[in-house]
Amino acid sequence: MSEFSAAAAAPASGEPVAPLKSGLPGGALAWILQQGARDPYVILITIYIFSPYFSRVLVGDPVAGQALVANISTTYGLLTALTAPFLGAMIEQYGPRKPMLGIVLGIMVPALVALWWAMPAGGLPLMATSALLIVLGLVYNWGDVLSNSLLGRAAGAVPGRAALISGLGYALANGLSVALLIFMLWGMVLPGQVDWPGVPHAPLFGLDPAKNEPSRISGPMAAAVMLLGAIPFFLWTPDAVRTGRSWMDSLRAGIAMLRDIFGNLRGHRDVAVFLGARMLYNDGMTALLVFGGLLAAGLMRWGALEMLAYGISLSIFGVIGGLAAPWFDRVLGPRKAVQLEIAGCLAVLVATLGMSREKILYFWSYDPAAHAPIWGGPLFRTAPELIYLGLGLLIAVFVTAQYASSRTLLIRLCPPDKTAAFFGLYALSGTATVWLGSLLVALATAIFKSQVGGFLPIAVLLGLGFCGLFLVRGGDPET
C-alpha cells in the first residue's frame, strides 16, 4: 500500500492525532463511527424497510414498484455521474472537506425526516416522495466522495491501516443497522402479533401498523443515527488544510486537474482500468442492494415481519464481510480479493434467481401445502424460504467485503496527493453506469413481466467487471 505523507495524515491544525489505547488514532475511530452512522440510511431506506414499503404500499404493485425504483436510481445515478468528479476535484483544490460534509448532513437529515409523511393518502404525493429519494441518493453519494477522501488522513502513514479502517467502517455500519432493525422488530412490528416474554403488548411510541407507521419511522430513525454519528467525526477526524482558494477558483483548478488526469491516463493506467472495471461490477453490486429487498419481498411474498428479520440476518453477515475484507486484502491482495468477492456474488445471484415459494434452485418443485413446516416459528417456516435466506446471507458477506476491498485497492493504486480527485472518479465509476444499469433493470422487468427477468442485466455487469480486473497491474499482497 502506498504510504501517505505526514502532511496528508495530519489534521488541519498540523498537530498529529494522539493514538488511543486501541492502537487506532481518535480521528480514525471517529471516521469509522461516521461511516457506520451514514450507512443505516442504505439499509433502512433503500433496501429493507422503506423501499419495499414504497413499492408495496405507495406504488401498490411489486413489478411496477421495482420499475419506479429503477427509474429513481437511474436519475440520481446520472446526476451523481455528472457532478461527483467535479466535486472531488474541486474539494482537493479547496482543502477542507468538513464544510461541504456539513451541507450534505443539513440536506439529508430533514429529507429523511420528511419520509415520515410519505403516505398513500393525506401525505406526500408519490412523485414528491420519489423526488425526495432522488435528492437523498444524490447527496449521499456526494457525502461518500468527501468522506472517502479523508480515509487516508484518518489512517495516517501506516501500511495496512486504511484497509483495517475501511473494513471496520462497513462492519460497524452493518452492526448499527442490525441494532436498529432488531429494535424495530422488537418494539414496532412484533407487538400485537406475538405473545412473547419481553415483547411490548403494543408498538412503541403509539405507532399504528394499520397506517404503516413502523415502516415510515425508518426515515427519522436513519436521520437521528446519521446526525449523532457525525458529531465525533467533525470534532476529531483530521481535515485537509485550507489552500486559500475560493470555491470558484477551486472549481476552476479542479477542472484543470481533471483535464490533466484524463489527459495523462497512461500515467495512471492501472487506476483507469480499475475504475473502468468497477464501473461495471459496482453497478451490479449496487443493483443487488437497491433491488434485493424488492426481489425478496416479491418472490417470497414476505411482509414487514419477514423483511425486518431478513434485513437483520443479512446485516449481521455484512459485519462478517467487513471484518473478512482486510484478511482477504492481506492474503490475496485487494485486486484478487475483489475478484473473489465478485465471483461469490455472481454465483449466489444465479442460484437466487432460481428460487420461489414453490421452487428450489430451478429444478425442484415445492408445494407448501404438501409439506409440514420445517419449524414452528412465526417466519421462514418452509424449505424455499430458509434456502433463500441462506443465499441472501452469502450475498451480504461478498457485497460488503467488495465495497471495503475496492476502496482499499484504489488507495493502493492512486497517487496520495490526488486522493480526493480519484475518489471523485471512483464515485463516477460507481455511478456512471448506475443510470444505465437501473434503466436495463427497468426495461428487463417490463419486457419479461417479472422481477427475476429484471435481474439478468445485473449478472452480466458482474461478469464483465470480474473479467476487467485481470487487466489491472498491482494490488498484490503486501510483503
Quick description:
Helix content is 71%, strand content 1%. The chain is an all-alpha fold and 479 residues long.
Describe the overall structure.
With 479 residues, the protein is mostly helical. Helix content is 71%, strand content 1%. The chain has helices at 6-9, 26-38, 40-48, 50-59, 62-94, 98-114, 126-148, 151-155, 161-189, 213-216, 218-236, 247-263, 269-299, 304-332, 334-352, 383-413, 419-431, 434-448, 451-454, 456-468, and strands spanning 359-360, 364-365. The protein has a two-stranded antiparallel ribbon. The longest helix has 33 residues, at 62-94. The model is unreliable at 1-22 (pLDDT under 50).
Largest sheet: 2 strands, antiparallel
Number of helices: 20
Strand order of the largest sheet: 1-2
Instruction: Please tell me how large the radius of gyration is.
Output: 22 Å
Global structural class: mainly alpha
Q: What percent of the residues sit in helical stretches (DSSP H or I)? A: over 70%
Q: Helices and strands, in N-to-C order?
A: HHHHHHHHHHHHHHHEEHHHHH
The total strand number stands at: 2
Q: Beta-sheet strand percentage? A: under 5%
Categorize the overall geometry: globular
Low-confidence stretches: 1-22
What is the CA–CA distance across the termini? 10 Å
Give the rounded overall mean pLDDT.
80
